[in-house]
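Key result, reporting period 2: structure in, sequence out.
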């Protein structure tokens, strides 16, 4: 086991022959404030348990386990700092990011006793076949279906934007209803439209998570209202169309009510497809455990979307009791963990006999 320059904990289990490629398993070790005990770390522990279950049996590929650092982006405001080092995108700009105390990623790495100059050495080995990540679902879908395991087909793309409705501040008592330009009422009309659009579009999730009205007094008509939008879907096309529709609707509402509208896009992150071959293999492995695999989309980002830039990647989700995550009440059923482990064993056997490995071995 060693710790690379980005703070990722890495270990390696040798193959039956030194010339063999390797399979990468992992997840992240960091978490959020007031977190649960399973987000990320369960995926790392499952990988270690999977190796233990081999009882020393050697495979036609090595297995590398990575426990990624800084996936959540809590400290520096940018997620996936650890896994980005493996695909070679932990660049100077990221290393210069600062936390709330003005400490840069670079300095934090040095303070931890590692060398930022060696970040390039953390990159994936050329012989890496694929990346597989176990993770709790962090949502209610598997529980609602009464099934323990899901296979992720894609990680959603995301749009984040801020809409500002600009009306006119005035007296709440003396201004008749037909002579108002109420920025908060306009935003409220738009927000219910956002919810309706998502409800009528399969797979789309849309959230207005923050609203700020100014001046914010009980007896004053709001002159300015800021509302955020978080829009996610597995299809980038559909997400772009939904963003256009919601922007048009905001413009129409603003125009009808005599308001100005400003819009700022904060994030436009494409969806990431998981590797179809691996998805099929995971589907088979889940069936072998006696469970019905559920093919699903991940609504949250994960290290797998970063690794997918360089190697075939896929994820297996474990049911989240109550659908709860990022909270101390986050949990997992012990029987589901056993099923995940069993699925992992089947998957390793399937991959050992797969065309993925054969193609790689012939090339080498
Ligand atoms: Zn996570």
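The corresponding designed sequence is given below.
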């Amino acid at each position: 086991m060693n710790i690379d320059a980005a703070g990722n904990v890495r270990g390696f289990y040798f193959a039956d022959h030194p010339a063999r490629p390797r399979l990468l398993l992992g997840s992240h070790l960091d978490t959020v404030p007031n977190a649960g005990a399973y987000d990320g770390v369960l995926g790392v522990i499952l990988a270690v348990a999977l190796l233990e279950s081999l009882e020393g049996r050697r495979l036609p590929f090595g297995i590398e386990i990575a426990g990624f650092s800084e996936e959540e982006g809590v400290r520096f405001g940018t997620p996936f700092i650890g896994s980005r080092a493996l695909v070679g995108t932990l660049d100077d700009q990221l290393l210069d990011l600062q936390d709330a105390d003005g400490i840069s990623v670079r300095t934090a790495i040095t303070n931890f006793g590692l060398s930022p100059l060696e970040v390039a050495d953390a990159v994936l080995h050329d012989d890496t076949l694929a990346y597989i990540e176990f993770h709790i679902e962090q949502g209610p879908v598997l529980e609602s279906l009464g099934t323990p395991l899901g296979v992720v087909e894609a990680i959603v793309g995301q749009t984040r934007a801020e809409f500002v409705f600009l009306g006119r501040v005035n007296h709440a008592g003396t201004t008749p209803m037909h002579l108002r330009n109420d920025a908060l009422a306009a935003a409220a009309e738009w927000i219910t439209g956002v919810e309706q659009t998502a409800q009528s579009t399969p797979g789309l999730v849309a959230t207005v998570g923050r609203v700020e009205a100014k001046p914010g007094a009980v007896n004053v008509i709001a002159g300015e209202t800021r509302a955020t939008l978080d829009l996610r879907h597995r299809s980038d096309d559909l997400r772009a169309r939904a963003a256009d529709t919601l922007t048009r609707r905001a413009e129409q509402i603003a125009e009808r009510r005599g308001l100005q509208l400003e819009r700022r896009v904060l994030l436009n992150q494409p969806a990431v497809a998981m590797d179809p071959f691996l998805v099929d293999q995971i589907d088979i492995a889940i069936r072998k455990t006696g469970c019905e695999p559920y093919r699903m989309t991940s609504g949250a980002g994960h290290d797998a979307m970063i690794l997918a830039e360089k190697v075939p990647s896929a994820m297996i989700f474990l049911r989240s009791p109550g659908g709860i995550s990022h909270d101390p009440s986050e949990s997992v059923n012990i029987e589901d963990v056993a099923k995940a482990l069993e699925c992992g064993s089947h998957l390793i056997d399937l991959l050992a006999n797969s065309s993925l490995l054969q193609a790689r071995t012939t090339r080498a």
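The two ends are 26 Å apart (CA to CA). The chain is about 35% helix and 25% strand. This case is discussed further under Risks and Mitigation.
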